[in-house]
Amino acid sequence: MDILAHELAGVVSDRMKTADRLFLAESCTGGLISAALTRVPGVSGFYLGGVVAYSDELKMRLLEVPAELLREHGAVSRPVAVAMLAAVERLYGATLACAVTGVAGPGGGSPAKPVGCVFIAVRRRNITWVRRFDFPGAGRREVQDRTVRAALLALHQVCVTGAPAGFEIA
């Protein structure tokens, strides 16, 4: 486990408001954000759980991502990251949620979405923010670790300031 991710998970846990119920929708990180959070004692007070929706099929089935969005934009895209969170409050009772989708590598990249291209979306109640991150030259594990850190930092910023830095409202 990345030590910085572990520290960030502890900070997120310390800042969570008991009124928030957190849900994670992970693709390229394969559950690493959940793993970082659940190593911190006390997260059961706010963390509902999450899904690892690696395939398009599970994105559609578990998160209700429209098939046409996946066809038109691809799984690694701003619209799909946002769509991964659209139904989580209704489906899972979450008031705070984070979704990640990206190209961890070593293959699968394209000129428009090279290895290291990641989209992170955060939703708190009725507001969703999204941001593209690029981690050029990073290997698979480093892309995943950087994504975990970026997602945890975004969650922390939402809890502290009400919005994640550098993200756009979707």
Helix-strand layout with pairing:
Layout: H1 3-15, E1 22-26, H2 32-38, E2 47-52, H3 56-63, H4 67-73, H5 78-86, H6 88-92, E3 96-102, E4 117-124, E5 127-134, H7 140-161, E6 168-169
Parallel strand pairs: 1-2, 1-3
Antiparallel strand pairs: 3-4, 4-5, 5-6
Helix pairs in contact: 1-2, 1-7
Can you walk through the features of this model?
42% of the residues lie in helices and 21% in strands. It is an alpha/beta fold and 170 residues long. It has a single domain (3-169), classed as Maf protein, CATH 3.90.950.20. Strands 2-1-3-4-5-6 form a six-stranded mixed β-sheet, with helices on both faces. The N and C termini lie far apart (31 Å).
CATH superfamily: CinA-like
Largest sheet: 6 strands, mixed
Following the backbone from N to C, one meets helices and strands in this order, namely HEHEHHHHEEEHE
Count of extended strands:
6
Give the low-confidence spans: none
Give a summary of the structure in a few sentences.
It is built from 7 helices and 6 strands, in the order H-E-H-E-H-H-H-H-E-E-E-H-E.
Which structural traits does this protein have?
six-stranded mixed sheet, 170 residues, Maf protein, alpha/beta
